[in-house]
Write a structure and sequence with these properties.
homodimer; mainly alpha; Arc Repressor Mutant, subunit A; 2 domains; two-stranded antiparallel sheet; 2 strands; 62% helix; globular; DNA-binding
DNA sequence: AATATGTGATTGCAAATTGCAACTGGTTGC
DNA sequence: GCAACCAGTTGCAATTTGCAATCACATATT
Protein backbone atom coordinates (compact mmCIF):
# COMPACT_ATOMS: atom_id res chain seq x y z
CA UNK A 1 0.00 0.00 0.00
CA UNK A 2 2.83 2.40 0.86
CA UNK A 3 4.93 1.31 -2.07
CA UNK A 4 5.36 3.61 -4.99
CA UNK A 5 3.07 2.91 -7.89
CA UNK A 6 4.41 0.85 -10.75
CA UNK A 7 3.35 3.52 -13.22
CA UNK A 8 0.98 6.45 -13.59
CA UNK A 9 -1.13 4.65 -16.18
CA UNK A 10 -4.80 4.80 -15.15
CA UNK A 11 -5.35 1.17 -16.14
CA UNK A 12 -2.38 0.08 -14.04
CA UNK A 13 -3.48 2.19 -11.09
CA UNK A 14 -6.95 0.66 -11.31
CA UNK A 15 -5.44 -2.82 -11.26
CA UNK A 16 -3.33 -1.88 -8.27
CA UNK A 17 -6.58 -1.22 -6.42
CA UNK A 18 -8.77 -4.12 -7.50
CA UNK A 19 -6.60 -6.27 -9.76
CA UNK A 20 -6.98 -9.48 -7.82
CA UNK A 21 -9.33 -12.41 -7.63
CA UNK A 22 -11.52 -11.21 -4.77
CA UNK A 23 -11.93 -7.44 -4.47
CA UNK A 24 -14.38 -7.05 -7.34
CA UNK A 25 -16.35 -10.07 -6.13
CA UNK A 26 -16.86 -8.42 -2.76
CA UNK A 27 -18.02 -5.24 -4.46
CA UNK A 28 -20.22 -7.31 -6.80
CA UNK A 29 -21.91 -8.91 -3.78
CA UNK A 30 -22.48 -5.51 -2.22
CA UNK A 31 -23.85 -4.03 -5.45
CA UNK A 32 -25.93 -6.89 -6.83
CA UNK A 33 -26.47 -8.92 -3.67
CA UNK A 34 -27.11 -6.03 -1.31
CA UNK A 35 -24.64 -7.38 1.26
CA UNK A 36 -23.74 -4.93 3.99
CA UNK A 37 -22.26 -7.09 6.79
CA UNK A 38 -19.11 -9.15 7.15
CA UNK A 39 -21.09 -12.30 7.88
CA UNK A 40 -23.32 -11.87 4.86
CA UNK A 41 -20.32 -11.43 2.60
CA UNK A 42 -18.64 -14.44 4.18
CA UNK A 43 -21.39 -17.03 4.30
CA UNK A 44 -23.40 -16.05 1.22
CA UNK A 45 -20.37 -15.82 -1.05
CA UNK A 46 -20.95 -17.81 -4.22
CA UNK A 47 -17.22 -18.50 -4.48
CA UNK A 48 -16.57 -19.29 -0.81
CA UNK A 49 -14.25 -16.52 0.27
CA UNK A 50 -12.38 -17.24 3.49
CA UNK A 51 -12.61 -14.94 6.46
CA UNK A 52 -8.99 -13.81 6.49
CA UNK A 53 -9.09 -12.83 2.83
CA UNK A 54 -12.41 -11.07 3.31
CA UNK A 55 -11.11 -9.14 6.32
CA UNK A 56 -7.95 -8.18 4.47
CA UNK A 57 -9.79 -6.98 1.37
CA UNK A 58 -12.37 -5.03 3.32
CA UNK A 59 -9.56 -3.22 5.11
CA UNK A 60 -7.87 -2.53 1.77
CA UNK A 61 -11.11 -1.30 0.17
CA UNK A 62 -11.60 0.91 3.21
CA UNK A 63 -8.08 2.34 2.87
CA UNK A 64 -8.63 2.91 -0.83
CA UNK A 65 -11.85 4.78 -0.24
CA UNK A 66 -14.02 2.25 -2.04
CA UNK A 67 -16.18 1.52 0.99
CA UNK A 68 -16.94 3.00 4.39
CA UNK A 69 -17.69 1.27 7.66
CA UNK A 70 -20.21 2.37 10.27
CA UNK A 71 -21.69 0.87 13.42
CA UNK A 72 -24.97 -0.95 13.19
CA UNK A 73 -27.25 0.56 15.88
CA UNK A 74 -29.06 -2.76 16.29
CA UNK A 75 -25.99 -4.64 17.44
CA UNK A 76 -22.85 -3.34 19.09
CA UNK A 77 -20.58 -5.74 17.23
CA UNK A 78 -22.21 -5.41 13.87
CA UNK A 79 -20.65 -3.19 11.24
CA UNK A 80 -22.34 -1.82 8.15
CA UNK A 81 -20.24 -1.52 5.03
CA UNK A 82 -21.30 1.04 2.46
CA UNK A 83 -20.16 1.74 -1.07
CA UNK A 84 -18.62 5.09 -1.87
CA UNK A 85 -19.26 6.97 -5.09
CA UNK A 86 -15.88 5.71 -6.23
CA UNK A 87 -17.09 2.12 -6.02
CA UNK A 88 -20.57 2.84 -7.37
CA UNK A 89 -18.94 4.16 -10.52
CA UNK A 90 -17.44 0.73 -11.10
CA UNK A 91 -20.88 -0.43 -12.20
CA UNK A 92 -20.22 0.07 -15.94
CA UNK A 93 -17.07 -2.02 -15.57
CA UNK A 94 -19.05 -4.72 -13.77
CA UNK A 95 -21.62 -4.66 -16.56
CA UNK A 96 -18.95 -5.01 -19.23
CA UNK A 97 -17.18 -7.77 -17.31
CA UNK A 98 -20.49 -9.59 -17.06
CA UNK A 99 -21.23 -9.19 -20.76
CA UNK A 100 -17.77 -10.28 -21.77
CA UNK A 101 -17.77 -13.27 -19.43
CA UNK A 102 -21.21 -14.29 -20.58
CA UNK A 103 -20.15 -14.20 -24.21
CA UNK A 104 -16.73 -15.79 -23.98
CA UNK A 105 -16.72 -18.06 -20.94
CA UNK A 106 -18.82 -20.93 -19.67
CA UNK A 107 -21.02 -18.86 -17.40
CA UNK A 108 -24.05 -20.55 -15.86
CA UNK A 109 -27.42 -19.45 -17.12
CA UNK A 110 -28.85 -18.37 -13.79
CA UNK A 111 -25.82 -16.24 -12.95
CA UNK A 112 -25.73 -14.75 -16.44
CA UNK A 113 -29.25 -13.42 -16.55
CA UNK A 114 -28.30 -10.28 -14.62
CA UNK A 115 -25.47 -9.59 -17.05
CA UNK A 116 -27.85 -10.09 -19.95
CA UNK A 117 -30.42 -7.65 -18.56
CA UNK A 118 -27.73 -5.09 -17.77
CA UNK A 119 -26.40 -5.40 -21.30
CA UNK A 120 -29.87 -5.01 -22.81
CA UNK A 121 -30.67 -2.09 -20.56
CA UNK A 122 -27.40 -0.38 -21.43
CA UNK A 123 -26.06 2.82 -19.87
CA UNK A 124 -29.53 4.19 -19.00
CA UNK A 125 -30.23 1.14 -16.85
CA UNK A 126 -26.76 1.39 -15.30
CA UNK A 127 -27.44 5.00 -14.38
CA UNK A 128 -30.76 4.06 -12.78
CA UNK A 129 -29.01 1.36 -10.76
CA UNK A 130 -26.24 3.74 -9.72
CA UNK A 131 -28.81 6.32 -8.63
CA UNK A 132 -30.44 3.65 -6.46
CA UNK A 133 -27.10 2.69 -4.98
CA UNK A 134 -26.47 6.33 -4.10
CA UNK A 135 -29.77 6.40 -2.23
CA UNK A 136 -28.97 3.15 -0.45
CA UNK A 137 -25.31 3.76 0.37
CA UNK A 138 -24.76 7.52 0.31
CA UNK A 139 -28.10 8.71 1.64
CA UNK A 140 -28.94 10.54 -1.57
CA UNK A 141 -32.55 11.74 -1.76
CA UNK A 142 -34.83 9.14 -3.29
CA UNK A 143 -36.82 10.36 -6.26
CA UNK A 144 -37.72 7.15 -8.03
CA UNK A 145 -40.87 6.13 -6.20
CA UNK A 146 -42.49 4.01 -8.90
CA UNK A 147 -41.74 0.42 -9.72
CA UNK A 148 -39.24 -2.15 -8.49
CA UNK A 149 -35.58 -1.26 -8.09
CA UNK A 150 -33.05 -2.45 -10.63
CA UNK A 151 -31.60 -4.85 -8.08
CA UNK A 152 -35.05 -6.28 -7.41
CA UNK A 153 -35.66 -6.68 -11.13
CA UNK A 154 -32.35 -8.47 -11.60
CA UNK A 155 -32.97 -10.62 -8.55
CA UNK A 156 -36.45 -11.58 -9.74
CA UNK A 157 -35.07 -12.56 -13.14
CA UNK A 158 -32.44 -14.71 -11.43
CA UNK A 159 -35.05 -16.46 -9.32
CA UNK A 160 -37.26 -17.00 -12.33
CA UNK A 161 -34.43 -18.79 -14.13
CA UNK A 162 -33.70 -20.92 -11.06
CA UNK A 163 -37.38 -21.83 -10.78
CA UNK A 164 -37.58 -22.75 -14.46
CA UNK A 165 -34.45 -24.87 -14.15
CA UNK A 166 -36.02 -26.72 -11.22
CA UNK A 167 -39.13 -27.34 -13.33
CA UNK A 168 -37.04 -28.66 -16.20
CA UNK A 169 -35.09 -30.98 -13.95
CA UNK A 170 -38.31 -32.29 -12.44
CA UNK A 171 -39.98 -32.69 -15.83
CA UNK A 172 -37.02 -34.41 -17.47
CA UNK B 1 -5.99 -23.91 -14.86
CA UNK B 2 -7.39 -27.42 -14.56
CA UNK B 3 -9.14 -26.66 -11.31
CA UNK B 4 -12.86 -26.37 -11.25
CA UNK B 5 -14.19 -22.84 -11.42
CA UNK B 6 -15.10 -21.11 -8.22
CA UNK B 7 -18.53 -20.25 -9.61
CA UNK B 8 -20.37 -19.85 -12.88
CA UNK B 9 -20.74 -16.10 -12.43
CA UNK B 10 -19.51 -14.33 -15.56
CA UNK B 11 -17.73 -11.66 -13.53
CA UNK B 12 -15.93 -14.32 -11.50
CA UNK B 13 -15.02 -16.29 -14.62
CA UNK B 14 -13.61 -13.13 -16.17
CA UNK B 15 -11.50 -12.52 -13.09
CA UNK B 16 -10.28 -16.09 -13.19
CA UNK B 17 -8.87 -15.30 -16.63
CA UNK B 18 -7.36 -11.83 -16.15
CA UNK B 19 -7.94 -10.96 -12.50
CA UNK B 20 -4.31 -10.29 -11.65
CA UNK B 21 -1.86 -7.45 -11.75
CA UNK B 22 -0.22 -8.22 -15.10
CA UNK B 23 -2.47 -9.91 -17.68
CA UNK B 24 -4.43 -6.82 -18.62
CA UNK B 25 -1.24 -4.76 -18.77
CA UNK B 26 0.21 -7.14 -21.34
CA UNK B 27 -2.97 -6.89 -23.40
CA UNK B 28 -2.95 -3.11 -22.94
CA UNK B 29 0.58 -2.96 -24.37
CA UNK B 30 -0.47 -5.09 -27.31
CA UNK B 31 -3.60 -3.03 -27.98
CA UNK B 32 -2.38 0.50 -27.33
CA UNK B 33 1.36 0.02 -27.73
CA UNK B 34 1.26 -2.28 -30.72
CA UNK B 35 3.66 -4.74 -29.10
CA UNK B 36 3.89 -8.08 -30.87
CA UNK B 37 7.13 -9.67 -29.59
CA UNK B 38 8.28 -10.97 -26.25
CA UNK B 39 11.22 -8.59 -26.12
CA UNK B 40 9.06 -5.58 -26.91
CA UNK B 41 6.66 -6.49 -24.13
CA UNK B 42 9.54 -7.09 -21.76
CA UNK B 43 11.79 -4.09 -22.32
CA UNK B 44 9.21 -1.45 -23.20
CA UNK B 45 6.94 -2.27 -20.28
CA UNK B 46 6.03 0.87 -18.39
CA UNK B 47 5.74 -1.13 -15.16
CA UNK B 48 8.84 -3.29 -15.60
CA UNK B 49 7.42 -6.78 -15.90
CA UNK B 50 9.95 -9.54 -15.32
CA UNK B 51 10.62 -12.18 -17.91
CA UNK B 52 9.34 -15.15 -15.95
CA UNK B 53 6.03 -13.44 -15.22
CA UNK B 54 5.70 -12.35 -18.83
CA UNK B 55 6.41 -15.85 -20.11
CA UNK B 56 3.94 -17.34 -17.65
CA UNK B 57 1.17 -14.90 -18.55
CA UNK B 58 1.69 -15.24 -22.29
CA UNK B 59 1.35 -18.99 -21.91
CA UNK B 60 -1.81 -18.54 -19.85
CA UNK B 61 -3.30 -16.04 -22.33
CA UNK B 62 -2.48 -18.51 -25.07
CA UNK B 63 -4.22 -21.33 -23.19
CA UNK B 64 -7.22 -19.11 -22.57
CA UNK B 65 -7.52 -18.20 -26.21
CA UNK B 66 -6.83 -14.52 -25.67
CA UNK B 67 -3.79 -14.47 -27.95
CA UNK B 68 -2.18 -16.63 -30.61
CA UNK B 69 1.49 -17.18 -31.37
CA UNK B 70 3.03 -17.54 -34.80
CA UNK B 71 6.55 -17.63 -36.18
CA UNK B 72 8.07 -14.45 -37.46
CA UNK B 73 9.32 -15.21 -41.01
CA UNK B 74 12.09 -12.64 -40.60
CA UNK B 75 13.75 -14.42 -37.71
CA UNK B 76 13.67 -18.08 -36.76
CA UNK B 77 13.55 -17.38 -33.03
CA UNK B 78 11.13 -14.50 -33.17
CA UNK B 79 7.51 -15.13 -32.28
CA UNK B 80 4.61 -12.90 -33.18
CA UNK B 81 1.81 -12.65 -30.65
CA UNK B 82 -1.62 -11.69 -31.95
CA UNK B 83 -4.82 -10.74 -30.22
CA UNK B 84 -7.88 -12.89 -30.73
CA UNK B 85 -11.39 -11.51 -31.10
CA UNK B 86 -11.90 -12.50 -27.46
CA UNK B 87 -9.16 -10.11 -26.39
CA UNK B 88 -10.08 -7.36 -28.83
CA UNK B 89 -13.51 -7.26 -27.23
CA UNK B 90 -11.88 -6.29 -23.95
CA UNK B 91 -11.38 -2.82 -25.38
CA UNK B 92 -14.54 -1.36 -23.81
CA UNK B 93 -13.37 -2.66 -20.45
CA UNK B 94 -9.96 -1.11 -20.99
CA UNK B 95 -11.62 2.17 -21.89
CA UNK B 96 -13.76 2.11 -18.74
CA UNK B 97 -10.79 1.13 -16.57
CA UNK B 98 -8.88 4.06 -18.02
CA UNK B 99 -11.72 6.49 -17.43
CA UNK B 100 -12.28 5.28 -13.91
CA UNK B 101 -8.58 5.35 -13.05
CA UNK B 102 -8.21 8.79 -14.56
CA UNK B 103 -11.08 10.13 -12.49
CA UNK B 104 -10.39 8.48 -9.17
CA UNK B 105 -6.67 7.80 -8.99
CA UNK B 106 -3.49 9.82 -9.33
CA UNK B 107 -2.87 9.01 -12.96
CA UNK B 108 -0.15 10.93 -14.77
CA UNK B 109 -1.28 13.39 -17.40
CA UNK B 110 0.66 11.91 -20.31
CA UNK B 111 -0.61 8.40 -19.63
CA UNK B 112 -4.17 9.63 -19.13
CA UNK B 113 -4.59 11.40 -22.43
CA UNK B 114 -5.42 8.17 -24.24
CA UNK B 115 -8.09 7.36 -21.68
CA UNK B 116 -9.51 10.85 -22.06
CA UNK B 117 -9.71 10.60 -25.84
CA UNK B 118 -11.27 7.14 -25.65
CA UNK B 119 -13.82 8.45 -23.19
CA UNK B 120 -14.65 11.45 -25.38
CA UNK B 121 -14.87 9.29 -28.50
CA UNK B 122 -17.13 6.80 -26.76
CA UNK B 123 -18.33 3.48 -28.20
CA UNK B 124 -18.07 4.65 -31.85
CA UNK B 125 -14.36 5.33 -31.41
CA UNK B 126 -13.94 2.00 -29.58
CA UNK B 127 -15.58 0.23 -32.50
CA UNK B 128 -13.26 1.94 -34.96
CA UNK B 129 -10.26 0.91 -32.89
CA UNK B 130 -11.53 -2.66 -32.62
CA UNK B 131 -12.04 -2.80 -36.39
CA UNK B 132 -8.43 -1.69 -36.84
CA UNK B 133 -7.22 -4.32 -34.39
CA UNK B 134 -9.12 -6.97 -36.35
CA UNK B 135 -7.28 -5.90 -39.48
CA UNK B 136 -3.94 -5.91 -37.69
CA UNK B 137 -4.32 -9.10 -35.67
CA UNK B 138 -6.94 -11.21 -37.42
CA UNK B 139 -6.26 -10.34 -41.03
CA UNK B 140 -9.68 -8.80 -41.51
CA UNK B 141 -10.05 -6.86 -44.77
CA UNK B 142 -9.09 -3.22 -44.37
CA UNK B 143 -11.72 -0.77 -45.45
CA UNK B 144 -10.75 2.39 -43.63
CA UNK B 145 -8.28 3.95 -46.01
CA UNK B 146 -8.57 7.56 -44.96
CA UNK B 147 -6.89 9.24 -42.03
CA UNK B 148 -4.69 8.07 -39.18
CA UNK B 149 -5.55 4.99 -37.17
CA UNK B 150 -7.00 5.32 -33.71
CA UNK B 151 -3.77 4.04 -32.20
CA UNK B 152 -1.81 6.63 -34.15
CA UNK B 153 -4.14 9.36 -32.99
CA UNK B 154 -3.81 8.28 -29.37
CA UNK B 155 -0.05 7.95 -29.71
CA UNK B 156 0.25 11.42 -31.26
CA UNK B 157 -1.78 12.91 -28.42
CA UNK B 158 0.49 11.19 -25.91
CA UNK B 159 3.59 12.54 -27.60
CA UNK B 160 2.11 16.01 -27.76
CA UNK B 161 1.55 16.01 -24.01
CA UNK B 162 5.09 14.77 -23.40
CA UNK B 163 6.47 17.50 -25.65
CA UNK B 164 4.43 20.18 -23.92
CA UNK B 165 5.57 18.91 -20.52
CA UNK B 166 9.20 19.15 -21.68
CA UNK B 167 8.56 22.73 -22.81
CA UNK B 168 7.02 23.64 -19.49
CA UNK B 169 9.90 22.14 -17.56
CA UNK B 170 12.37 24.02 -19.72
CA UNK B 171 10.43 27.28 -19.48
CA UNK B 172 9.91 27.08 -15.73
C1' DA C 1 -28.22 -17.88 35.29
C1' DA C 2 -26.39 -20.85 31.99
C1' DT C 3 -25.92 -21.98 27.39
C1' DA C 4 -26.14 -21.42 22.54
C1' DT C 5 -25.68 -18.69 18.77
C1' DG C 6 -24.21 -14.55 16.13
C1' DT C 7 -20.61 -10.89 15.52
C1' DG C 8 -16.23 -9.23 13.06
C1' DA C 9 -12.49 -10.66 12.79
C1' DT C 10 -7.26 -13.02 14.07
C1' DT C 11 -3.84 -16.76 14.18
C1' DG C 12 -1.00 -20.66 12.73
C1' DC C 13 0.66 -23.01 9.09
C1' DA C 14 1.37 -25.19 4.48
C1' DA C 15 1.10 -24.34 -0.34
C1' DA C 16 1.23 -21.44 -4.18
C1' DT C 17 2.61 -17.25 -6.36
C1' DT C 18 5.59 -13.41 -7.18
C1' DG C 19 9.74 -11.17 -8.42
C1' DC C 20 14.66 -10.46 -8.88
C1' DA C 21 18.90 -11.87 -11.01
C1' DA C 22 21.44 -14.85 -13.47
C1' DC C 23 21.59 -17.90 -17.06
C1' DT C 24 20.39 -21.05 -21.31
C1' DG C 25 20.43 -22.43 -26.08
C1' DG C 26 19.97 -20.81 -30.17
C1' DT C 27 19.94 -17.01 -34.34
C1' DT C 28 21.40 -13.11 -36.74
C1' DG C 29 24.30 -9.12 -38.13
C1' DC C 30 28.76 -7.27 -38.70
C1' DG D 1 34.36 -15.30 -35.27
C1' DC D 2 32.08 -12.60 -32.13
C1' DA D 3 28.85 -9.43 -30.25
C1' DA D 4 24.14 -8.52 -30.01
C1' DC D 5 19.53 -10.21 -30.08
C1' DC D 6 15.81 -13.77 -29.42
C1' DA D 7 12.43 -16.22 -26.35
C1' DG D 8 12.37 -17.82 -22.70
C1' DT D 9 14.15 -20.94 -18.07
C1' DT D 10 16.11 -21.64 -13.48
C1' DG D 11 17.15 -20.91 -8.62
C1' DC D 12 15.85 -18.82 -4.67
C1' DA D 13 13.87 -15.66 -1.20
C1' DA D 14 9.88 -13.01 -0.01
C1' DT D 15 5.20 -12.46 -0.20
C1' DT D 16 0.48 -13.88 -0.73
C1' DT D 17 -3.11 -17.18 -0.52
C1' DG D 18 -6.22 -20.27 1.63
C1' DC D 19 -7.84 -23.62 5.00
C1' DA D 20 -9.11 -24.58 9.69
C1' DA D 21 -9.30 -23.39 14.20
C1' DT D 22 -9.93 -19.95 17.39
C1' DC D 23 -10.85 -15.35 19.73
C1' DA D 24 -13.33 -11.81 22.47
C1' DC D 25 -17.38 -10.15 22.95
C1' DA D 26 -22.78 -9.35 22.25
C1' DT D 27 -27.20 -10.98 22.01
C1' DA D 28 -30.85 -14.60 22.09
C1' DT D 29 -32.75 -18.76 24.15
C1' DT D 30 -34.05 -21.63 27.77
Amino acid sequence: MNDAHRSGCPINLSLEVFGDKWSLLILRDMIFGGRRHFRELLTRSEEGISSNILADRLKMLLDEGMITKTDDPSHKQKAIYSLTEKAIELLPIMAHLGSWGRKWLAASEELSIRAQLLEEGGPPLWEKFMAELRVEHLGAPANDPAGPSVRETLQAAYEEVVARQAMERAGA
